[in-house]
Amino acid sequence: MQKIKFNSSKVISSRLIYGCMRIAGDNTPADKTKGKLALRTALEVGYTHFDHADIYGAGHCESLFGELLTELKQETPDIREQLIITSKAGIRPDPQRYDFSADYLTTSVENSLKRLNVDYLDMFLLHRPDYLFNAEQVAQTFEQLKASGKVKHFGVSNFSPSQLSLLQSALDKPLLVNQIEINIHNISSLTDGSLDQCQQLGITPIAWCPLGGVVYPAWGNTFSKADEQRIAAELARQAELYNCSTWQLILAWLLKHPANICPIIGSTTPERIVAAKQALSIVYNHADWYRLLEARNGYPQP
Ligand SMILES: NC(=O)c1ccc[n+]([C@@H]2O[C@H](COP(=O)([O-])OP(=O)(O)OC[C@H]3O[C@@H](n4cnc5c(N)ncnc54)[C@H](OP(=O)(O)O)[C@@H]3O)[C@@H](O)[C@H]2O)c1
Protein backbone atom coordinates (compact mmCIF):
# COMPACT_ATOMS: atom_id res chain seq x y z
CA MET A 1 0.00 0.00 0.00
CA GLN A 2 1.27 3.46 -0.91
CA LYS A 3 1.85 5.79 2.04
CA ILE A 4 1.38 9.54 2.32
CA LYS A 5 2.66 12.03 4.90
CA PHE A 6 0.18 14.66 6.08
CA ASN A 7 1.48 18.21 5.90
CA SER A 8 4.36 19.03 8.27
CA SER A 9 3.31 16.40 10.82
CA LYS A 10 4.76 12.94 11.36
CA VAL A 11 1.42 11.37 10.44
CA ILE A 12 1.95 8.77 7.74
CA SER A 13 -1.26 7.31 6.34
CA SER A 14 -2.05 4.62 3.84
CA ARG A 15 -3.03 6.37 0.58
CA LEU A 16 -6.38 4.61 0.67
CA ILE A 17 -8.24 5.21 3.91
CA TYR A 18 -10.81 2.75 5.20
CA GLY A 19 -14.17 4.42 5.94
CA CYS A 20 -16.08 3.01 8.89
CA MET A 21 -19.47 4.62 8.23
CA ARG A 22 -21.10 1.38 7.08
CA ILE A 23 -19.33 -1.23 9.26
CA ALA A 24 -22.05 -1.76 11.85
CA GLY A 25 -24.87 -2.11 9.30
CA ASP A 26 -28.07 -2.48 11.32
CA ASN A 27 -25.97 -3.54 14.33
CA THR A 28 -27.27 -7.12 14.12
CA PRO A 29 -24.83 -9.91 15.06
CA ALA A 30 -24.53 -10.84 11.35
CA ASP A 31 -23.84 -7.25 10.29
CA LYS A 32 -21.28 -6.84 13.07
CA THR A 33 -19.48 -10.02 12.01
CA LYS A 34 -19.43 -8.71 8.43
CA GLY A 35 -18.10 -5.34 9.63
CA LYS A 36 -15.30 -6.96 11.62
CA LEU A 37 -14.32 -9.07 8.63
CA ALA A 38 -14.19 -5.91 6.50
CA LEU A 39 -11.94 -4.22 9.07
CA ARG A 40 -9.66 -7.26 9.38
CA THR A 41 -9.40 -7.45 5.58
CA ALA A 42 -8.49 -3.77 5.37
CA LEU A 43 -5.79 -4.22 8.01
CA GLU A 44 -4.38 -7.31 6.33
CA VAL A 45 -3.95 -5.58 2.98
CA GLY A 46 -2.29 -2.47 4.35
CA TYR A 47 -4.92 0.14 5.17
CA THR A 48 -3.53 1.82 8.28
CA HIS A 49 -5.93 4.75 8.51
CA PHE A 50 -9.54 4.35 9.70
CA ASP A 51 -12.10 7.11 9.35
CA HIS A 52 -14.90 7.48 11.89
CA ALA A 53 -17.44 10.00 13.12
CA ASP A 54 -19.37 10.13 16.37
CA ILE A 55 -22.62 9.83 14.41
CA TYR A 56 -21.82 6.80 12.23
CA GLY A 57 -24.38 4.14 13.08
CA ALA A 58 -25.34 6.35 16.06
CA GLY A 59 -22.02 5.39 17.69
CA HIS A 60 -22.23 1.67 16.85
CA CYS A 61 -19.50 1.92 14.19
CA GLU A 62 -16.96 3.29 16.68
CA SER A 63 -18.04 0.70 19.27
CA LEU A 64 -17.58 -2.13 16.80
CA PHE A 65 -14.12 -0.86 15.93
CA GLY A 66 -13.32 -0.66 19.67
CA GLU A 67 -14.45 -4.27 20.14
CA LEU A 68 -12.22 -5.44 17.33
CA LEU A 69 -9.29 -3.43 18.64
CA THR A 70 -9.61 -5.23 22.00
CA GLU A 71 -9.46 -8.57 20.18
CA LEU A 72 -6.54 -7.46 18.02
CA LYS A 73 -4.55 -6.27 21.04
CA GLN A 74 -4.42 -9.89 22.24
CA GLU A 75 -2.67 -10.86 19.00
CA THR A 76 -0.66 -7.66 18.44
CA PRO A 77 -0.20 -5.64 21.65
CA ASP A 78 1.09 -2.53 19.86
CA ILE A 79 -1.62 -2.54 17.16
CA ARG A 80 -3.02 0.83 18.31
CA GLU A 81 0.28 2.60 17.68
CA GLN A 82 0.39 1.18 14.14
CA LEU A 83 -2.89 2.85 13.19
CA ILE A 84 -4.13 6.30 12.31
CA ILE A 85 -7.55 6.66 13.89
CA THR A 86 -9.57 9.69 12.83
CA SER A 87 -12.93 10.75 14.14
CA LYS A 88 -15.20 13.69 13.51
CA ALA A 89 -17.82 15.65 15.42
CA GLY A 90 -19.85 18.80 15.05
CA ILE A 91 -23.13 17.47 13.64
CA ARG A 92 -25.50 17.46 16.54
CA PRO A 93 -28.91 15.72 16.67
CA ASP A 94 -32.13 16.79 18.41
CA PRO A 95 -32.57 19.19 16.76
CA GLN A 96 -30.08 18.54 13.95
CA ARG A 97 -27.54 21.37 13.72
CA TYR A 98 -23.85 22.07 13.53
CA ASP A 99 -22.22 22.95 16.83
CA PHE A 100 -18.55 23.76 17.46
CA SER A 101 -18.98 24.80 21.09
CA ALA A 102 -16.16 23.70 23.38
CA ASP A 103 -18.46 21.60 25.57
CA TYR A 104 -20.02 19.77 22.67
CA LEU A 105 -16.79 19.02 20.83
CA THR A 106 -14.93 17.97 23.97
CA THR A 107 -17.71 15.65 25.11
CA SER A 108 -17.94 14.17 21.61
CA VAL A 109 -14.23 13.41 21.55
CA GLU A 110 -14.37 11.83 25.02
CA ASN A 111 -17.31 9.64 23.99
CA SER A 112 -15.54 8.61 20.78
CA LEU A 113 -12.45 7.62 22.75
CA LYS A 114 -14.55 5.44 25.05
CA ARG A 115 -16.34 3.74 22.17
CA LEU A 116 -13.15 3.24 20.18
CA ASN A 117 -11.36 1.95 23.28
CA VAL A 118 -8.35 4.22 22.71
CA ASP A 119 -6.64 6.97 24.74
CA TYR A 120 -6.18 9.40 21.87
CA LEU A 121 -7.30 10.22 18.34
CA ASP A 122 -4.58 10.71 15.75
CA MET A 123 -6.80 13.23 13.99
CA PHE A 124 -9.98 14.99 14.97
CA LEU A 125 -11.98 16.70 12.21
CA LEU A 126 -14.79 19.21 12.38
CA HIS A 127 -17.46 17.33 10.45
CA ARG A 128 -19.36 20.16 8.75
CA PRO A 129 -18.83 23.90 9.14
CA ASP A 130 -20.86 25.50 11.90
CA TYR A 131 -21.82 28.81 10.27
CA LEU A 132 -21.80 30.35 13.75
CA PHE A 133 -18.27 29.23 14.61
CA ASN A 134 -15.77 31.55 16.22
CA ALA A 135 -12.28 30.66 15.04
CA GLU A 136 -10.54 31.81 18.23
CA GLN A 137 -12.85 29.70 20.38
CA VAL A 138 -12.35 26.63 18.21
CA ALA A 139 -8.59 27.20 18.39
CA GLN A 140 -8.81 27.20 22.19
CA THR A 141 -10.82 23.98 22.15
CA PHE A 142 -8.19 22.38 19.90
CA GLU A 143 -5.42 23.52 22.25
CA GLN A 144 -7.21 22.00 25.23
CA LEU A 145 -7.86 18.73 23.43
CA LYS A 146 -4.20 18.55 22.43
CA ALA A 147 -2.89 19.53 25.88
CA SER A 148 -5.06 16.83 27.47
CA GLY A 149 -3.50 14.24 25.15
CA LYS A 150 -6.90 13.30 23.72
CA VAL A 151 -6.14 14.48 20.18
CA LYS A 152 -2.81 14.66 18.37
CA HIS A 153 -3.74 16.53 15.17
CA PHE A 154 -6.64 18.42 13.65
CA GLY A 155 -8.37 18.82 10.34
CA VAL A 156 -11.69 19.80 8.85
CA SER A 157 -14.38 18.30 6.68
CA ASN A 158 -16.69 19.94 4.14
CA PHE A 159 -15.01 23.30 4.69
CA SER A 160 -14.92 25.86 1.89
CA PRO A 161 -11.49 27.40 1.24
CA SER A 162 -12.45 30.62 3.05
CA GLN A 163 -13.78 28.74 6.08
CA LEU A 164 -10.56 26.74 6.20
CA SER A 165 -8.45 29.92 5.92
CA LEU A 166 -10.42 31.56 8.70
CA LEU A 167 -9.87 28.66 11.09
CA GLN A 168 -6.23 28.23 10.07
CA SER A 169 -5.58 31.92 10.80
CA ALA A 170 -6.44 31.29 14.47
CA LEU A 171 -4.31 28.14 14.84
CA ASP A 172 -0.61 27.88 15.50
CA LYS A 173 -0.36 24.39 13.94
CA PRO A 174 -1.34 23.52 10.38
CA LEU A 175 -4.55 21.69 9.67
CA LEU A 176 -3.66 18.33 8.12
CA VAL A 177 -6.67 17.49 5.96
CA ASN A 178 -9.92 18.70 4.45
CA GLN A 179 -12.29 15.76 3.99
CA ILE A 180 -14.68 16.65 1.19
CA GLU A 181 -16.99 14.93 -1.24
CA ILE A 182 -15.12 14.28 -4.47
CA ASN A 183 -16.49 11.89 -7.07
CA ILE A 184 -17.48 11.89 -10.72
CA HIS A 185 -20.77 13.59 -9.82
CA ASN A 186 -19.48 16.20 -7.38
CA ILE A 187 -16.46 17.86 -8.97
CA SER A 188 -16.89 21.25 -7.34
CA SER A 189 -13.51 20.94 -5.58
CA LEU A 190 -11.85 21.19 -9.02
CA THR A 191 -13.13 24.71 -9.47
CA ASP A 192 -14.10 26.14 -6.06
CA GLY A 193 -10.50 26.51 -4.88
CA SER A 194 -10.54 23.57 -2.44
CA LEU A 195 -7.96 21.45 -4.23
CA ASP A 196 -5.83 24.52 -5.11
CA GLN A 197 -5.81 25.56 -1.46
CA CYS A 198 -4.85 22.06 -0.35
CA GLN A 199 -1.88 22.06 -2.73
CA GLN A 200 -0.83 25.54 -1.67
CA LEU A 201 -0.98 24.81 2.08
CA GLY A 202 0.18 21.20 1.95
CA ILE A 203 -3.20 20.01 3.22
CA THR A 204 -4.30 16.56 2.07
CA PRO A 205 -7.73 16.40 0.45
CA ILE A 206 -9.58 13.28 1.55
CA ALA A 207 -12.40 12.18 -0.76
CA TRP A 208 -15.58 10.88 0.83
CA CYS A 209 -18.06 8.79 -1.20
CA PRO A 210 -15.46 8.47 -3.98
CA LEU A 211 -17.69 6.09 -5.96
CA GLY A 212 -20.86 8.17 -5.68
CA GLY A 213 -22.52 8.76 -9.03
CA VAL A 214 -21.18 5.53 -10.48
CA VAL A 215 -21.88 2.53 -8.27
CA TYR A 216 -24.72 4.27 -6.41
CA PRO A 217 -26.52 7.62 -6.86
CA ALA A 218 -24.49 10.53 -5.52
CA TRP A 219 -25.80 12.81 -2.79
CA GLY A 220 -28.20 15.24 -4.47
CA ASN A 221 -27.81 13.24 -7.66
CA THR A 222 -28.54 15.24 -10.81
CA PHE A 223 -27.35 12.68 -13.37
CA SER A 224 -30.00 11.81 -15.92
CA LYS A 225 -30.24 8.36 -17.53
CA ALA A 226 -28.50 9.83 -20.58
CA ASP A 227 -25.64 11.13 -18.38
CA GLU A 228 -25.29 7.73 -16.73
CA GLN A 229 -25.21 5.96 -20.08
CA ARG A 230 -22.60 8.33 -21.53
CA ILE A 231 -20.37 8.00 -18.45
CA ALA A 232 -20.80 4.21 -18.37
CA ALA A 233 -19.83 3.95 -22.04
CA GLU A 234 -16.62 5.95 -21.55
CA LEU A 235 -15.81 4.03 -18.37
CA ALA A 236 -16.33 0.74 -20.21
CA ARG A 237 -14.02 1.87 -23.03
CA GLN A 238 -11.31 2.87 -20.56
CA ALA A 239 -11.76 -0.19 -18.35
CA GLU A 240 -10.91 -2.36 -21.34
CA LEU A 241 -7.92 -0.19 -22.15
CA TYR A 242 -6.56 -0.28 -18.59
CA ASN A 243 -7.67 -3.85 -17.92
CA CYS A 244 -9.48 -2.99 -14.70
CA SER A 245 -12.99 -2.44 -13.33
CA THR A 246 -14.87 0.76 -14.02
CA TRP A 247 -14.99 1.65 -10.33
CA GLN A 248 -11.21 1.21 -10.03
CA LEU A 249 -10.86 3.75 -12.86
CA ILE A 250 -12.98 6.20 -10.91
CA LEU A 251 -10.52 5.90 -8.02
CA ALA A 252 -7.59 6.31 -10.43
CA TRP A 253 -9.27 9.46 -11.79
CA LEU A 254 -9.21 10.94 -8.27
CA LEU A 255 -5.69 9.72 -7.54
CA LYS A 256 -4.37 11.42 -10.70
CA HIS A 257 -4.97 14.91 -9.29
CA PRO A 258 -1.72 16.60 -8.16
CA ALA A 259 -3.23 17.56 -4.79
CA ASN A 260 -2.71 13.90 -3.78
CA ILE A 261 -6.31 13.07 -3.02
CA CYS A 262 -6.76 10.16 -0.57
CA PRO A 263 -10.02 8.32 -1.31
CA ILE A 264 -11.89 6.75 1.60
CA ILE A 265 -12.99 3.26 0.68
CA GLY A 266 -16.38 2.53 2.23
CA SER A 267 -17.13 -0.94 0.89
CA THR A 268 -17.77 -3.71 3.40
CA THR A 269 -17.09 -6.40 0.77
CA PRO A 270 -13.66 -7.96 1.36
CA GLU A 271 -13.00 -8.51 -2.37
CA ARG A 272 -13.64 -4.82 -3.11
CA ILE A 273 -11.54 -3.64 -0.16
CA VAL A 274 -8.65 -5.64 -1.58
CA ALA A 275 -9.28 -4.76 -5.23
CA ALA A 276 -9.39 -1.01 -4.54
CA LYS A 277 -5.60 -1.14 -4.14
CA GLN A 278 -5.25 -1.93 -7.84
CA ALA A 279 -6.30 1.65 -8.58
CA LEU A 280 -2.99 2.80 -7.08
CA SER A 281 -1.02 1.08 -9.83
CA ILE A 282 -3.05 2.39 -12.79
CA VAL A 283 -0.91 4.77 -14.83
CA TYR A 284 -3.71 7.04 -15.89
CA ASN A 285 -3.31 8.96 -19.09
CA HIS A 286 -3.82 12.76 -19.09
CA ALA A 287 -6.03 12.64 -22.22
CA ASP A 288 -8.22 9.85 -20.80
CA TRP A 289 -8.69 11.87 -17.62
CA TYR A 290 -10.19 14.64 -19.74
CA ARG A 291 -12.28 12.25 -21.81
CA LEU A 292 -13.94 10.98 -18.65
CA LEU A 293 -14.53 14.57 -17.51
CA GLU A 294 -16.13 15.32 -20.88
CA ALA A 295 -18.34 12.23 -20.62
CA ARG A 296 -19.37 13.39 -17.17
CA ASN A 297 -20.11 16.95 -18.35
CA GLY A 298 -21.79 15.99 -21.60
CA TYR A 299 -19.91 18.60 -23.60
CA PRO A 300 -16.34 18.92 -24.85
CA GLN A 301 -13.83 21.05 -22.98
CA PRO A 302 -13.95 24.56 -24.44
N1 LIG B 1 -17.09 13.84 5.92
C1 LIG B 1 -18.28 13.55 5.47
O1 LIG B 1 -19.20 14.38 5.46
C2 LIG B 1 -18.55 12.14 4.98
C3 LIG B 1 -19.78 11.83 4.36
C4 LIG B 1 -19.96 10.52 3.92
C5 LIG B 1 -18.97 9.56 4.09
N2 LIG B 1 -17.79 9.91 4.72
C6 LIG B 1 -16.70 8.91 4.89
O2 LIG B 1 -16.40 8.39 3.61
C7 LIG B 1 -16.38 6.98 3.68
C8 LIG B 1 -16.66 6.39 2.34
O3 LIG B 1 -18.00 6.72 1.93
P1 LIG B 1 -18.84 5.64 1.14
O4 LIG B 1 -19.02 4.44 2.00
O5 LIG B 1 -20.06 6.31 0.60
O6 LIG B 1 -17.79 5.33 0.00
P2 LIG B 1 -17.76 4.53 -1.35
O7 LIG B 1 -16.55 3.67 -1.28
O8 LIG B 1 -17.90 5.54 -2.45
O9 LIG B 1 -19.09 3.65 -1.36
C9 LIG B 1 -19.23 2.45 -0.66
C10 LIG B 1 -20.59 1.88 -1.03
O10 LIG B 1 -20.58 1.54 -2.42
C11 LIG B 1 -20.83 0.16 -2.57
N3 LIG B 1 -19.95 -0.33 -3.63
C12 LIG B 1 -18.60 -0.20 -3.70
N4 LIG B 1 -18.14 -0.75 -4.85
C13 LIG B 1 -19.22 -1.21 -5.50
C14 LIG B 1 -19.40 -1.85 -6.74
N5 LIG B 1 -18.36 -2.13 -7.52
N6 LIG B 1 -20.66 -2.16 -7.13
C15 LIG B 1 -21.71 -1.90 -6.33
N7 LIG B 1 -21.60 -1.28 -5.12
C16 LIG B 1 -20.37 -0.94 -4.72
C17 LIG B 1 -20.48 -0.47 -1.23
O11 LIG B 1 -21.24 -1.65 -1.08
P3 LIG B 1 -20.60 -2.94 -0.32
O12 LIG B 1 -20.35 -2.52 1.09
O13 LIG B 1 -21.71 -3.94 -0.46
O14 LIG B 1 -19.37 -3.33 -1.07
C18 LIG B 1 -20.90 0.62 -0.26
O15 LIG B 1 -22.31 0.59 -0.05
C19 LIG B 1 -17.36 6.64 4.81
O16 LIG B 1 -17.14 5.36 5.35
C20 LIG B 1 -17.03 7.72 5.79
O17 LIG B 1 -15.88 7.35 6.53
C21 LIG B 1 -17.57 11.18 5.15
From TrEMBL:
GO molecular function, one term: oxidoreductase activity
Source organism: Colwellia psychrerythraea
InterPro entries: AKR, AKR_Detox_Biosynth, NAD(P)_OxRdtase_dom_sf, NADP_OxRdtase_dom
CDD domains linked to this entry: AKR_BsYcsN_EcYdhF-like
Name assigned to this protein: NADP-dependent oxidoreductase domain containing protein
One Pfam family it belongs to: Aldo_ket_red
Cellular-component GO terms for this entry: cytosol
Residue intervals of the NADP-dependent oxidoreductase domain: 15-292
